[in-house]
Design a protein that fits this description.
about 25% helix, about 300 residues, 5-stranded mixed sheet, alpha/beta, 8 helices, 2 domains, Rossmann fold, 7-stranded mixed sheet
Length: about 300
């Protein structure tokens, strides 16, 4: 069975590594073009090291991409972390079809920020789906699903890297085997049980919200895109933090305490101890460094 692997980054790389370990024949790999600094995608690098043809089109929709793709004569497309739009001509071409990874329990959380929204919403479980893509956005029939727990202090990063990433690689390999054996199901989605959600590009912290909601927003945006507040009129993104039960009469958003490893901010029904931030125009830094360089002090207000 000849596989065309379409993907990118570390996830695509690990899927390729796992497929090769299982002895699968990968006929071609499609990944994004090299970055402006010349850095190549790790999926493409691994493919090249293994003598697999690598293609890096600017857009999969370009007509010449399909014309060349046909020459590789794939039996199955495997889509492992794809952000470009793959045309139906490619999706429908292989005799065994196309399977794709998505980091949610479809039809819940369709879209490109599935993990963000699950954490932001305070959900206690999510998972992954291997499905057969169609003309819709994450609407195709389901092949396989696996569930994971979202712990109270999990972040977007911990849910993905510690849970959905490794489990997703295993699920993709398992799904390829089912397709190869002719045992892969196609279970229609009940789209009334889910929704398509926009990309989580910017989330502002409202310190007046209950502390649990504030905490969910911060951890659901960590490490990307970061939850935003302001300090002295400048955007300040908050990343690593802890939710604490300390509360009082102080107005939400007020700095309550400065410590060696961060600072405590009053909330509604609790507080947030901030450990890592990103000031406007700056890289991410430890909260203690921000305190030292900004002059932040007890009584200052965030979010004004």
């Amino acid at each position: 069975m000849r596989i065309a692997l379409i993907g990118q980054a570390a996830f695509g790389e690990k899927v390729l590594e796992a497929l090769l370990k299982e002895g699968e024949e990968v006929a071609v790999v499609y990944c994004p073009p090299d970055a402006p600094n010349g850095k190549a995608d790790p999926l493409g690098e691994l493919a090249a090291k293994n003598g697999i043809p690598v293609r890096k089109p600017a857009r999969m929709r370009n007509p010449e991409v399909f014309e060349e793709y046909k020459g590789f004569n794939p039996d199955l497309n495997v889509m492992a972390f794809v952000t470009d739009i793959v045309p139906m001509t490619i999706i429908n071409y292989p005799r065994l079809g196309t399977i794709q990874y998505h980091p949610s329990l479809l039809p819940r959380h369709r879209g490109g920020s599935a993990i963000n929204w699950a954490v932001i919403n305070g959900e206690t479980k999510t998972g992954l789906t291997i499905f057969w893509p169609d003309e819709g956005l994450d609407t195709g029939p389901i092949l396989m699903q696996k569930e994971v727990t979202i712990e109270p202090d999990d972040t977007l990063g911990s849910v993905y890297f510690n849970k959905l990433f490794p489990l997703g690689v295993e699920a993709m390999v398992e799904s390829v085997k089912l397709v190869k054996e002719g045992k892969a199901p196609k279970i229609p989605q009940d789209l009334s049980q889910g929704e398509y959600e926009p990309l989580c590009k910017k989330m502002n912290i409202d310190w007046m919200y209950p502390i649990g909601i504030v905490y969910n927003v911060i951890r659901g945006c960590n490490p990307s895109p970061g939850a935003s507040t302001t300090y002295k009129g400048q955007v300040l993104k908050i990343y690593d933090c802890e939710k604490r039960n300390v509360s009082g009469q102080t107005a939400p958003g007020t700095v309550l305490e400065i410590a060696d490893d961060g600072f405590l901010v009053a909330g509604n029904g609790g507080s947030i101890f901030v450990k890592r931030v990103q000031p406007q125009g700056s890289p991410k830094i430890k909260a203690a460094e921000f305190v030292a360089t900004s002059g932040l002090k007890v009584g200052d207000k965030l979010g004004q």
